[in-house]
UniProtKB/TrEMBL annotation:
It comes from Paramicrobacterium chengjingii. Acetylated. Deacetylation by the SIR2-homolog deacetylase activates the enzyme. PANTHER family: ACETYL-COENZYME A SYNTHETASE (PTHR24095), ACETYL-COENZYME A SYNTHETASE 1 (PTHR24095:SF14). It catalyses: acetate + ATP + CoA = acetyl-CoA + AMP + diphosphate. The keyword Chaperone does not apply. This is Acetyl-coenzyme A synthetase. One of its GO terms (molecular function) is acetate-CoA ligase activity. SUPFAM superfamilies: Acetyl-CoA synthetase-like.
Length: 655
C-alpha cells in the first residue's frame, strides 16, 4: 500500500525573531545542542532546575519494560507543593497567580499565598472524605478558580483527578466516573455561559441516579461550589456545599512527598476518531515537561509576563497550560469563565487590554471564528501588550496564521504553533519564539530533548519533501503511562504499528528544511485516484479564498476515483449577500482549489453550510461529514459541542 501523503501546498513566507526579542529570550539555540549531546542528562537537568524534589532522583529513565516508561522514578515530590508553597517560601506570596474574570463582569484576583491556603483547606476537606493516595476524584466544574484549587488539592493528597468537561452530558460523566471508580465528584450549581446561567448539578444528579435510578456507583460525596445561584436538588448526606466546609477547614496542611511515578491524573481524549480513552499521566516527568515547555515555548518571564491560555480545564491544554505549567513556573495568568462573544464580540480583546496580557495561547477554530466577524472588532482594543501568540488543537491554516499575526499581534509578535496531544502530556513540536524563523502553517521542529520523525507504512523515514505518519522516536518525560485499566489498548493503539516508536495517529510532511507540517488525522487522509491527499491542505486552500470563513473536507467513496474530495464551506456573510447564485460560488470554489493546489484536489462537490460539526475543544469531526457525503446514517454525535448541528447540516445539504 502506498502511504506517502502527497504534498500540495506551497508556503514561502518567513518571519525571523527581531534582534531585541532574541536578545531577551529566556532560551537560546544552545538548548538544542545540549539536548543533542546527551538527551537524558538534558531532561535530568530540567527536572532538577524546574522542579523541587523531596528526595532527589538518581535514575532518569527506566525503559526496561517498553512501552511502559518510568522517569526519575527513585525521586519523590509533591506536585501541589511545586505549584504553590515553594513560591510562597521564596517570597513570592503576594504575586498574583490568577486574575479571574467571570462572564458577567465580576472578577477575583488571587495571589500565590491565597491560592496556597485555599488548596490546603480543600485538601483537608477531601482528606476528611477519606481521599488519599491513589483515590480518584471526578471534577466537573466550569472555568472558576475552584477548578484549579480542586485539581491541586487532589494532587496534594497524592490522589488522581479526572476532570470531565462541564459541557458533557450526564451519560458521558457517568461512564467516566465508572471507568475510574471515582469516590468524590466536585461540581457547581451552575455557571455563566452566553449571558445565562447554565446548570451543572442536574447532570451530576442524573449521572449518579444511574440507569436503574437506584445506584450512585462508587461515589460517596458530591462537593458543590455555589456559582450560578440557581435552584438545585439536594441529596442529604451525599451532597455538601463547598462554602459550608472549605472556608471552615484548617489552612495547615503538610504536603507529603510521593514517588515520581505516582499517578497525577486521568483524562479522556475527545473521541474525534473513536471511543474516548482514559489517558494516564504521572507526576515527576509530566511536571518537568509541562514547566519546561511553558517556559521555553512561550518565552516566559515570570516576573513581568501575564499569560492567558483560553483552554477549558476539561482539555489537556487546560491541565498543562492553565494549571501545572504556569503555576509550577510561578507565572501570573488570566482565567476566564465564559464564551468569547459574551456579552459582546470583543470580550477576549477587552480582557487582554484590561490585564495587559503579554502571552496568549488559543486554538485555530477560535481564530477563524474571529476572522469571520472581521478585524474591526479586535481593532477597537489596545492589544499592544501582546508579545507572543500560540496556537494548538488543529493545523492552523496559513491564512489564519497571517491574520493572527497581523490583526492580533500587530504584525510583530512571533507565533508558536504547538503540536501535541492528550497522550504526550505537553508540547512536543513547536518553534521557540526567540530562536526559530517561523513559517505560517508549520509546527516546525521538535522541542529540545524530543525526537520526532515522519515514516512510511513500513517504518522507513521519508526524505525531506515527503509526507507520511508522525512518530515519536524516543520516550519523553510527560508521555502517557497507559490507558486507565486497559494496558492492551495502550499497546495496540500506539505501539503495535512501529514497535519501539510511538505512533501518534497524525499525518505530517517534512519540507525541504526538515520542518514538520501537520496534515490532520491519518484516518482522515483521502485517496483520490491513488494520490493520498490531506484534508488540512485542501481546507487551507479553501480558507485562502476571500469568500470562505471555514471549511471541512472529506474523502467520499467514488466509482471512478476511489475517493473524491467533498468540501463543506461556511461563506462569509458579506459574500453571501452579494452572490447572484449559490451555484456560482460552488463552481468558483471548485476551480479555485484546482488552481491553488492542482486538479487532483478539485472537489467533486462543495456544500455551503452554516455550521460544522465540532467537538467541545473545537476540532472538526470529519467522520460525521463523511457519513453524510456517503449517504449513510450519521454516527455517534455524543461528544459534539452542539448535537443538533448535524441535523441542520443534513437539511442544508439535502436541499
Ligand atoms: P481522540 O484521540 O479521541 O480523537 P483527540 O485526539 O481529538 O481525541 P486531543 O488529544 O485533544 O484529543 O487532540 C490531539 C490532536 O489534535 C492531535 O493528534 C492532532 O491531530 C491535533 N493537534 C493538536 N495540536 C495541533 C497542531 N498544532 N497542529 C496540528 N494538529 C494538532
Ligand atoms: Mg487523539
Amino acid at each position: 500500500m502506498n502511504t506517502q501523503i502527497d504534498n500540495l501546498l506551497q508556503e514561502n513566507r518567513r518571519f525571523a525573531p527581531t534582534e531585541e526579542f532574541a536578545k531577551n529570550s529566556v532560551v537560546t539555540s544552545s538548548l538544542y545542542e545540549d539536548a543533542a549531546a546527551d538527551r537524558l542528562e538534558f531532561w535530568a537537568k530540567q527536572a532538577r532546575d524546574l522542579v523541587s524534589w523531596e528526595t532527589p532522583f538518581t535514575r532518569t529513565l527506566d525503559w526496561s519494560n517498553p512501552p511502559f516508561a518510568k522517569w526519575f522514578d527513585d525521586g519523590t515530590l509533591n506536585v501541589a507543593y511545586n505549584c504553590l508553597d515553594r513560591h510562597v517560601e521564596a517570597g513570592l506570596g503576594d504575586r498574583v497567580a490568577i486574575y479571574w474574570e467571570g462572564e458577567p463582569g465580576d472578577s477575583r484576583t488571587i495571589t500565590y499565598a491565597e491560592l496556597t491556603d485555599e488548596v490546603k483547606r480543600t485538601a483537608n476537606v477531601l482528606a476528611g472524605f477519606g481521599i488519599g493516595k491513589g483515590d480518584r476524584v471526578a471534577i466537573y466544574l466550569p472555568m472558576i478558580p475552584e477548578a484549579v484549587i480542586s485539581m491541586l488539592a487532589v494532587a496534594r493528597l497524592g490522589a488522581i483527578h479526572s476532570v470531565v468537561f462541564g459541557g458533557y452530558s450526564s451519560d458521558s460523566l457517568r461512564s467516566r466516573i465508572d471507568d475510574a471508580e471515582a469516590k468524590v465528584v466536585i461540581t457547581a450549581d451552575g455557571a455563566w455561559r452566553k449571558g445565562k446561567v447554565s446548570s451543572l448539578k442536574p447532570a451530576v444528579d442524573a449521572a449518579l441516579a444511574g440507569k436503574d435510578g437506584d445506584t450512585q456507583g462508587t461515589v460517596e460525596h458530591v462537593l458543590v461550589v455555589k456559582r450560578g445561584e440557581n435552584e438545585v436538588d439536594w441529596s442529604e448526606g451525599r451532597d455538601i456545599w463547598w462554602h459550608d466546609v472549605v472556608p471552615a477547614a484548617s489552612a495547615d496542611h503538610t504536603p507529603e512527598a510521593f514517588e515520581a511515578e505516582n499517578p497525577l491524573f486521568i483524562l479522556y481524549t475527545s473521541g474525534t476518531t473513536g471511543k474516548p480513552k482514559g489517558i494516564l499521566h504521572t507526576s515527576g516527568g509530566y511536571l518537568t515537561q509541562a514547566a519546561f515547555t511553558h517556559k521555553s515555548v512561550f518565552d516566559l518571564h515570570a516576573d513581568t509576563d501575564v499569560f492567558w491560555c483560553t483552554a477549558d480545564i476539561g482539555w489537556v491544554t487546560g491541565h498543562s497550560y492553565v494549571v501545572y505549567g504556569p503555576l509550577a513556573n510561578g507565572a501570573t495568568q488570566v482565567m476566564y469563565e465564559g464564551t468569547p462573544d459574551s456579552p459582546h464580540p470583543g470580550r477576549w480583546w477587552e480582557i487582554i487590554e484590561k490585564y495587559k496580557v503579554s502571552i496568549f495561547y488559543t486554538a485555530p477554530t477560535a481564530i477563524r471564528s474571529f476572522m469571520k466577524v472581521g478585524r474591526q472588532v479586535p481593532q477597537e482594543f489596545d492589544l499592544s501588550s501582546l508579545r507572543v501568540l500560540g496556537s494548538v488543537g488543529e493545523p492552523i491554516n496559513p491564512e489564519a496564521w497571517m491574520w493572527y499575526r497581523k490583526v492580533i499581534g500587530g504584525d510583530k509578535t512571533p507565533i508558536v504553533d504547538t503540536w501535541w496531544q492528550t497522550e504526550t502530556g505537553a508540547i512536543m513540536v513547536s518553534a521557540l519564539p526567540g530562536v526559530t524563523e517561523t513559517k505560517p502553517g508549520s509546527a516546525q521542529v521538535a522541542i529540545p530533548g524530543i525526537s520526532v520523525n515522519v515514516l512510511d507504512d513500513k517504518g522507513n523515514a521519508v526524505p525531506n519533501g515527503g509526507g507520511g505518519l508522525l512518530v515519536v522516536d524516543e520516550p519523553w518525560p510527560a508521555m502517557l503511562r497507559g490507558v486507565w485499566g486497559d494496558p492492551e489498548r495502550y499497546k495496540e493503539t500506539y505501539w503495535e504499528k512501529f514497535g519501539d516508536k510511538y505512533f501518534a495517529g497524525d499525518g505530517a510532511r517534512l519540507d525541504e528544511d526538515g520542518d514538520v507540517w501537520l496534515l490532520g488525522r491519518v484516518d482522515d487522509v483521502m485517496n483520490v485516484s491513488g494520490h493520498r491527499i490531506s484534508t488540512a491542505e485542501v481546507e487551507s486552500a479553501l480558507v485562502a479564498n476571500e469568500m470562505v470563513a471555514e471549511s471541512a473536507v472529506v474523502g467520499a467513496s467514488d466509482e471512478t476515483t476511489g475517493q473524491a474530495v467533498v468540501a463543506f464551506v461556511i461563506i462569509k456573510q458579506s459574500h453571501l449577500d452579494q452572490a447572484e447564485k449559490i451555484a456560482d460560488i460552488t463552481s468558483s470554489l471548485r476551480s479555485w482549489v484546482g488552481q491553488q493546489i492542482g486538479p487532483i484536489a478539485r472537489p467533486r462537490e462543495v456544500f455551503i453550510v452554516n455550521e460544522l460539526p465540532k467537538t467541545r475543544s473545537g476540532k472538526i469531526m470529519r467522520r460525521l461529514l463523511r457519513d453524510l457525503a456517503e449517504g449513510r446514517e450519521v454516527g455517534d454525535t455524543s461528544t459534539l459541542a452542539d448535537t443538533m448541528v448535524m441535523k441542520v447540516i443534513t437539511d442544508q445539504v439535502q436541499k
